[in-house]
Design brief:
single chain, alpha/beta, Nucleotidyltransferase, domain 5, 2 domains, five-stranded mixed β-sheet
Amino acid sequence: MSHRIGIDLGGSKIALGLVSPADEILARRRIDTNAAAGLERVVKRIADEVEALAATLTSEEAVAAVGVGAPGPLDHIKGELLTLVNLPGISNSPFRRVLSERLALPVALDHDAKVAALGEFHFGAGRGRDSMIYIVIGTGVGAAIIYQGALFYGEGNSAGECGHMTVDPRGRPCHCGSRGCLEAYTGGPALSRQYAEMTGDDITGADIAARARSGDERALQVFIDAGRALGIAIASLAMTLNIETFVIGGSVAKAGDLLLEPAHETLPGYAFRAVSERVRVVASRLGEDAPILGAAHMAKRLL
């Protein structure tokens, strides 16, 4: 029977999952990325983990393909990683080819947000829908668009860069050089920065969420502002694309209703009622399993 391995290649860690033909995660491995060691060493370490997972199978079973979700920018057609600020040791490399040759297996490679979107669409919060937009909110903000069951890439492969949609043209400066970007309100560093400006306390987004749940009004305001910005962005996407299901993932999304309630409340003010009434904004169901299952689903297409 043909099993697959889904890999979530991140800036600090690499998570791997052995996925059955029935799309169940049977076993997991996790290692530090250590990209500074260079492409060959990173690939070898990944291959060692793949082989360890494969060794848990019976003699009648085998790993048939591997899927990888990686930070962008990348070229999913050529299978190349481009200039990755957080992973300079493996930037500008033919990553898919090198890993495939090392494993002697077919390998699929795509942007991590798109891979996680596939996981949610087929197995999580988007299951049963025709189309979906997955917005991932962590250190940065990005999105993946699935239209009529297929990922939409755009003409230059950059569709989904919603983190730099303008939600307030006179708003906060963004590190991209513009002002009022969604990421300047919802990204983890943005939450920390706003709370520090209010209180002088430099704490993480998770800590701000904990304080908000304990009734800290300034922490609550940080999430109200973030949720409003998210609601404006979702309204614009819904009006433009007429897609009704929005799944929110990433570390900041773990704040749950602290973020999603103000987004829901804001949405109707920026979209036609006929559009906004049909929009569903829900949290990821799969969490960290989304990229593993999405990568394994992507790998299935190679069989």
